[in-house]
TrEMBL record:
Gene name of the record: glmS
Keywords: Aminotransferase, Cytoplasm, Glutamine amidotransferase, Repeat, Transferase
Subcellular location: Cytoplasm
Task performed by this protein: Catalyzes the first step in hexosamine metabolism, converting fructose-6P into glucosamine-6P using glutamine as a nitrogen source.
Coiled-coil region list: none
Name the record gives this protein: Glutamine--fructose-6-phosphate aminotransferase [isomerizing]
Quaternary structure and partners: Homodimer.
Chief localisation class: cytoplasm
Record's catalysed reaction(s): D-fructose 6-phosphate + L-glutamine = D-glucosamine 6-phosphate + L-glutamate
Biological process (GO), any one: amino sugar biosynthetic process
Active-site residues annotated for this sequence: 363
Keyword Metal-binding in record: no
Amino acid sequence: QKQGYDWYMRKEIFEQPRAVADTLLGRLNERGELILDEIRISPETLRRIDKIVIVACGTAFYAGLVAKYAIEHWTRIPCEVEVASEFRYRDPIIDPMTLVVTISQSGETADTLMAIRHAREQGAKVIAICNTNGATIPRESDAVIYTHAGPEIGVASTKGFTTQLVACYLLGLYLAQVRGMKYGDEIAALLRELERMPEAIQGMLDNQQQVLDLAREFVNEPSVLFLGRHVGYPVALEGALKLKELAYIHAEGFAAGELKHGPIALIREDLPVFVVVPPRGRDQLRDKVVSNIAEVRARGAKTIVLAEADDEEARAAAAVFIELPKLSTLLQPVAAIIPLQLFACELATVQGHDVDQPRNLAKSVTVE
Ligand code: F6R
């Protein structure tokens, strides 16, 4: 039931505060430690892991790209991310010391299933992050972290993605906790921040009007670009994917630092360019993104900038400014993706497309 929404997708976008809260439920004990009972792989085994490989498809793959930044930072375990359909065909280097993490909303994606079968044949341990109880992928994995998003009916993944991000953070923090790494101390603080995430998402949803107006303004655009850096890069990729799937227009996400290595040639007068700006941190990341905005603006592009409300420089470089809540850099994607989901949903609605059933797409891809 759509409960008064025009599309399942829109309903699912608005369910994200609840979905994220449910995915976090009961993970924290009184001592501020993370509990992940479902990881039935012994702490000793997890301490011996020397490499993590994340395999997934589509939106779940982009969640995996975010996970790589977080997991490597918190655990210092080398982490690769690969599109599942490419994985087994290149004879990947995996052994019993490799932890394979697979992310799948449906738990039935054939490419992903084949990848984990291959990994287990090589003796790797497999942890699945999945939204569907008892699906094939969790059944064939050593352990499962379920996202508690509830059924996702719209073909385009939304609450699937944000809950996958949360599950990846939980896994990364759990590995850091088990291995007693230097970021262990940060775990409690990050978990408290994660617990405030539903509120942060709700804030983005409450301010949707600006994004809806923007979608109406851009309804005839043939092309839209998305730029981001660090974990903002997968957000850019996911924002572009939503637009391709739903509105059938050319959309591309780029790592902002790659701009001058080619994509800047695409920038022209009035081209809509979304830019995700990281929070101010110890590094120069945010400053670099702000100068990327100036570069595209100087070439006449229409810059839609997502940044923290008090980032006055980012605001000054923006044609349209979308405020993001204050979050740690690694957690920002959960909030930053919300306006991009709303934008794609609204643009496709105004264009008259079937948002829940985009052409040529199936909800779960059960053939390789
Ligand atoms: C995009 C989308 C797809 C899926 C991909 C993997 O909106 O839904 O890209 O993310 O097909 O599906 P799962 O997560 O079910 O393995």
